[in-house]
Automatic annotation (TrEMBL):
The gene is LOC101391882. It comes from the Eukaryota. InterPro entries: FHA_dom, SMAD_FHA_dom_sf, TIFA. This is TRAF-interacting protein with FHA domain-containing protein B. It holds the Pfam family FHA. Residues 37-107 form the FHA domain. Residues 143-204 are annotated as: Disordered.
Length: 204
């Protein structure tokens, strides 16, 4: 009996909802365990028609942790021109972060939510795509552009309960509200660490 494949359920939103943006998105895509490239280039597995995107903007990279029989994933930023926001973290060129069960991603005005449903196969995975008519991610006092880094990040007064303008708030998740403080990890600090690899050539 074939082992079940890991499934990534990917919801996509862009404010223009223009048909050209998502014209090349299939309902379903099966992929081997090589990195799945997202961008506007001809070699991108997930092609999005936006001039602000790099040819290779980001990648979803499956791997197996030592002692585990399941595929897990990380997301790597491949663009020199713009940042990628993943679960509230900013990734720059060649930085990467591991993905959890539910992941909120934003880049070049595109909002993407990735749900990971684990399977036993280590040879391939499946992406199922859904185009959302409504925003997936809520960002107070910020526009969906790659110029957010130029917006001053004012820190709120201590004890005010207000969050800085650059904070990510998410729709459709009652467990997270604008006034809820971040939950510390058991060992203190944050559990997710950014990783940077040495440049291996121009990717944009």
């Amino acid at each position: 009996m074939d082992k079940p494949l890991t499934v990534l359920r990917v919801s996509l939103y862009h404010p223009t909802q223009g048909p050209a943006v998502f014209a090349n998105i299939p309902p379903q895509l099966q992929h081997d365990i090589s990195p799945l490239l997202v961008g506007r280039g001809q070699d991108a597995h997930l092609r999005l028609q936006l001039p602000t995107l790099s040819r290779r903007h980001l990648s979803l990279e499956p791997y197996r942790e030592k002692g585990s029989s399941l595929l897990v994933f990380c997301l790597k930023a491949l663009s020199r021109r713009g940042c990628v926001w993943v679960n509230g973290l900013t990734l720059r060129f060649l930085e990467q972060v591991p993905l959890g069960a539910v992941n909120r991603v934003s880049f070049s005005g595109i909002q993407m939510v990735v749900h990971v449903e684990g399977g036993m196969s280590l040879e391939a995975f499946v992406c199922c795509f859904h185009l959302s008519p409504l925003p997936l991610i809520y960002r107070p006092q910020a526009e969906e552009t790659d110029e957010w880094e130029s917006i001053p990040q004012e820190q709120p007064p201590p004890g005010s309960g207000q969050q800085a303008p650059g904070h990510l708030g998410f729709l459709h998740d009652p467990s997270q509200t604008r006034d809820s403080p971040p939950q510390p990890s058991p060992g203190g600090g944050t559990e997710i660490q950014l990783q940077r690899e040495p440049p291996d050539g121009m990717l944009c």
